[in-house]
Amino acid sequence: MAPTLRVGDLVEVRSAEEILATLDDKGELDSLPFMPEMLRFCGQRMTVHKVAHKLCDTITGGGLRRMENAVHLTGARCDGSSHGGCQTACSMYWKEAWLKKVSAGDQAPAPAPVRSLPILEINTRKPDGEDGEPRYSCQATELNRAAPVLLPFKDLGQYVMDVRTGNVGVLGSIRGFLVGLFNRYQDVSKRKLPRWLLINKGLRFRLFEGPLTGRTPVETLDLKPGELVRIKSRKEIIATLNKDLLNRGMGFEEEMARYCGQTGRVQTRIEACIDEKTGKLLTMKTPCIVLEDLVCVGVYNRNCPREFIPFWREIWLERIPE
Fold first, then answer.
1. What pLDDT, on the 0 to 100 scale, is given for residue 20?
2. DSSP assignment string, 219-256
3. Residue 245 Ramachandran class (φ > 0 left, ψ -120 to 50 alpha, else beta)
4. HSE (CB half, 13 Å, CA atoms) of 243?
5. Each residue of 188-243: pLDDT tens digit?
6. What does the alpha-carbon distance between residue 179 and residue 176 come to, in Å, rounded to a whole number?
7. What fold, for 206-319?
8. Where are the domains of the chain?
9. 206 with 180: CB under 8 angstroms?
10. Predicted TM-score (pTM) above 0.90
11. Given 63, 216, 226, 233, which is the most exposed site by the fewest CB atoms within 10 A?
């Protein structure tokens, strides 16, 4: 079913009572949870940032999945307040049934007080794990249920939809298709061709190999919010990675490599995040850094509109004096 909203549309988030009427006893619509962190936006007027007709599968790594009738709204990120203080700051999914399209000239409703709905709070928790630690349920942990259908690369409708919804322009959509085509070739050639015939060892577009085995290096800068930093060069960062492109368990991806050499300002230090596979709240032994206004825009992943906020190891950054 084609989405009715486009990027830039002005919408009003329906009242808590209206949204509650769309939810089942799990606090979900089409298996997508409406989270307590979303209640503070009820009654507000907001702009559609992206149409969430597809998403990256970060739980199984199975590619992209199809999502129906959902969007991301500008500035609506989860603050983790009902999920153990998770700091991932995911861009939340909004079903179209939770929104109504309005015009700028329409009279805005009076601000509604933020309320708590017990059904939503109850459904943020799963049974505790065998280790006795709490397990959480959120949109990120349940996305594969909310988007059960895989979206194959050869489905050309997704690239048309990217343009029709305003997620990307024509050139951006073509680039996404060509990058995907190259990655498909690399995947097949790595299985079928001898090593000496492979392009860049059969690695996917702009990917690379880390040189390290064993423990990877760490550097402590004790960066604070507001400080200015430079993201190190691609070569410098690759030198800190193992063969799985990890540094102390944290991955460095091609989308992040696009920002190498740029400057940014520290937004916050990340010490806790939910593991999407298990729902466990993880405490980082080595805190990571979030930089202001830097997000994954899906350039190398078929223009996925999910817009993760990358986590940066301090060893990948260098402080710049003001």
1. 94
2. ------TT-EEEEPPHHHHHTT-BTTSEETTEE--HHH
3. left
4. 2
5. 898 888 888 888 888 888 778 889 998 999 999 999 999 999 999 999 999 999 99
6. 5
7. SH3 type barrels. (2.30.30)
8. 10-104+116-150, 168-205, 206-319
9. no
10. yes
11. 226
